């Protein structure tokens, strides 16, 4: 964990710092100092945790890191747990940082709760995506799996734009209306399901890494 | 004699290769040389012992412990240098030492630094800029810095130039003599093994064909040069790899003391000559006879 923690924490902190000027913008234009644009800007940036994870796996593959770790007195389960824990901690710090920042500037729960929920939903997707990426890497190997991930990665980055233009905008669904959905208990239930899923995927990843080593 | 390593019917199957029922004991406190041609199964055996690959049958006990159930505990007491050296090559030797120190119970940072100094390895330089020889030495420094009880070296000198090779082997010789460690050294370079091993194991086509003390092996195996009429047929029939040439014939015996009396008249008359053999001569004979 210690090996990569600096980079995992640096990216989210930088993004949070870049987003800070938006507070001022929101203060000028919105009914609450915390309007929705801040959350919608920050939430997708959690993907950078995935980018950090992917680049480190690339480096791990390039330098045969798993072969190096294999000769050390460390069990495959420990390797997987450390990697999953690091992603989880990075995501948790990012979510925590966002929520604290929101709480500091918001004057009404009407904006605070949906904003936090919005970031948490993205974080849940990020956690599951990270778990699936690890699973694929342990199952197929980085090089083999990497070919397909690139396609998925591009789709993930590109699809929100056409969804917004061709589906949401013609139906008059605004960002604010989407955010209102976060007011309900759905994202709490979703978070619990995601965390359980993340844990189960970690167990499966341990099994796959053991099989790969064998 | 206590055995630090015991394998029982160890087996691994690949589509084109089978490691077949390996029963192998390594005595504690000695250097065991594992000799065999390329593809004999030396690396597979070592990887199975370290549980780097899964076996298809059999058992391995290291320090009296099952190698699968006690993998972490066993690896804590083993220093391993493979044929290929894997590191985070964008990092330095100092970083690598710091990184691996977290995994070993008895990591000795001072010893690591002293080995880096002795091997003239720059601790701050990125490993990707190291030569093959430097990487082997770094690997050796890591393998020896956590006070291992068993050192396993799988073709460590393969691909090294003769000067570095000699340097590494000489270091190992001194180290093992001074520290009373058990060493398993696998190589197809018999000269390396000949220099430091106490015991020799020959492995051919996935089978262990012989394990013997080096001294006994070299005193038993001899090359006999003779003229056809100087030896009885029964003696000649017991020689291996008999070859005829313009000065007579020659063949190998694997039990020189047993034929010593029969050779005596020929030796006295000068019709028979006996020559010591090297480990590679024995390897060639075993491969031909396999």
CATH topology of the largest domain in chain B: Rossmann fold
> In which range does the helix fraction of chain B lie?
25-40%
CATH class of the largest domain in chain B: Alpha Beta
Query: Structural class of the secondary structure composition of chain A?
Result: mainly alpha
Whole-Å distance between the termini of chain B?
30 Å
Short synopsis of the structure:
Chain A is 84% helix and 0% strand. Chain A has helices at residues 2-29, 36-42, 47-62, 65-70, 76-105, 109-140, 142-158, 160-168, 175-181, 186-213.
Describe this structure in words.
The complex is a heterodimer of chains A (214) and B (290). The radius of gyration of chain A is 19 Å and the shape is elongated. Chain A is built from ten helices and no strands. The mean pLDDT of chain A is 80. Chain A has one domain. With 214 residues, chain A is mainly α. Helix content of chain A is 84%, strand content 0%. Chain A starts with a helix and ends with a helix. Chain B has two domains: 3-217, Rossmann fold; 221-289. Chain B has eleven helices and 14 strands. Chain B has helices spanning 42-49, 71-75, 93-101, 109-118, 132-144, 162-179, 190-196, 214-220, 233-237, 256-269, 279-289; strands at 3-14, 17-27, 31-35, 57-62, 65-66, 78-81, 150-154, 182-187, 199-204, 207-213, 222-226, 240-245, 248-253, 272-276. In chain B, the strands form three sheets. Chain B has a six-stranded mixed beta sheet with strand order 6-7-8-3-9-10, with helices on both faces. Chain B is elongated and about 70 Å long. Chain B starts with a strand and ends with a helix. The mean pLDDT of chain B is 90. The interface between A and B is medium-sized, with 16 and 23 residues.
